[in-house]
Each structure stands twice: as C-alpha cells, then as structure tokens.
Amino acid sequence: MAKLYFSYSTMNAGKSTLLLQASYNYRERGMRTVLFIAAFDDRGGHGRIASRIGLDSEAHTFRPDDNLYEVIESLKAEGEIACAFVDEAQFLTEDQVWQLARVADRLGIPVMTYGLRTDFQGKLFPGSQALLALADELREVRTICHCGRKATMVVRTDDNGQVIRAGAQIEVGGNEKYVSYCRRHWDDVMNPEASK
C-alpha cells in the first residue's frame, strides 16, 4: 500500500540530499521517479533540486494553483512511476497535500515530501501543518544547534547578520539568511528579554 511521507526539519539538515539519494536509489534499479519543487525556489536553478553538498536533479515545478494529482496522473500515463518526491513541501497548499494523499491512495504511488516544519517565527507553514495532519509517516531529519543539541527552530538574518523578528513568512534563502537553533537558543535570540 502506497503512503504519504513527510520528512521535516529545520534548515541545513540535509533534506534535499536525502530526497536526491532516495530518488537515485529507485532509478539505479530501473524505476522511474518524478520530482517536484516550488516554482519560485530557484536557488539550484529553475526546475532543479540542489543540495548544499553538490547533488542536483531536474524537477517539475509547482505553483499554488497546480493540481498535483492531475499532474502526476498525466505523468503516469507516460509510464509507471515508482515514487513521487516533493522538495520544499512547506510551500504546498492544504489542497495540494490532499492531492498528494490521493496520489498515494488512489494511484498507488508512494509520495515522499521533504520540508521545513516551522518558519523563522516558530509558526507552522500551511503545507507543513497539512502534512503533519495527513501524512501516513512522519520522519524528523536532525541537525544540531551551535551548542550541540538538536536544532528544531530557525532564525532569519539580514545582510549584516542581524536577527529579523518580523516579515513575510516565505523568503527563500540558505546559509546566508537562516541559522538553525535548538528551542532554548532560538528563544534567547528571538526574545532576549525573556532570557534575563
């Protein structure tokens, strides 16, 4: 039985690397996979999933108004699909998460999604919230804070390294813009008056 998976973490934990490795494992055995990434995330190039360690692959892009069930169903008409992969799954809409659940339930194609759980203010992304509610299996991908504890939160910084406490939920970036922390150190940075 096909399942919907959600592998989540904070920034720089290796989610894209894991996705690309899993897809490679299928392809190495002659099985077809389809990969997706948010259309506006062009850090690796338009329609490319790229990891910090240099792995990359072509991917289909998705926008908020795309019906991913219909897209995958039409791709399946071109040949069997062993697995569908979605990077930056926090950018999915709730409807798209339901569409991916239907891909697993009705088309029998496993769907592996990878993304952030929370934003820089500690709030759930809509796509992540829906995945936490609907995914058959949840997997935490771990990275560490500078103190050595598990990092579960992320802080956004400006060009001068100053912490940003307000702003749009979505702002694409990498190491130059985001720092991962454990909850305690995130709280110290985001709410310095509370740590006194």
Automatic annotation (TrEMBL):
Q: Which residues cross the membrane?
A: none
Q: What is the first-listed, main subcellular location in coarse terms?
A: cytoplasm
What is the E.C. number? 2.7.1.21
Q: Name one GO cellular component term.
A: cytosol
Q: Which reaction does it catalyse?
A: thymidine + ATP = dTMP + ADP + H(+)
Does the record's keyword annotation contain ATP-binding?
yes
Q: Does the keyword Ion transport apply?
A: no
**InterPro entries (alphabetical):** P-loop_NTPase, Thymidine_kinase, Thymidine_kinase_CS
Task: Give the binding site residues for ATP.
Answer: S9, T10, M11, N12, A13, G14, K15, S16, D87, E88, A89, Q90
Listed binding positions for Zn(2+) are C145, C147, C182, H185
Localization per Swiss-Prot or TrEMBL: Cytoplasm
Active-site residues, record numbering mapped to chain: E88
Coiled-coil parts of chain: none
Q: Which domain of life is it from?
A: Bacteria
Keywords in alphabetical order:
ATP-binding, Cytoplasm, DNA synthesis, Kinase, Metal-binding, Nucleotide-binding, Transferase, Zinc
Q: Which residues bind substrate?
A: I170, E171, V172, G173, Y178
| Subunit description | Homotetramer.
Entry's family note: Belongs to the thymidine kinase family.
Q: What protein am I looking at? A: Thymidine kinase
- What does UniProt list as this organism's lineage? Bacteria, Pseudomonadati, Pseudomonadota, Alphaproteobacteria, Hyphomicrobiales
Q: Which gene encodes it?
A: tdk
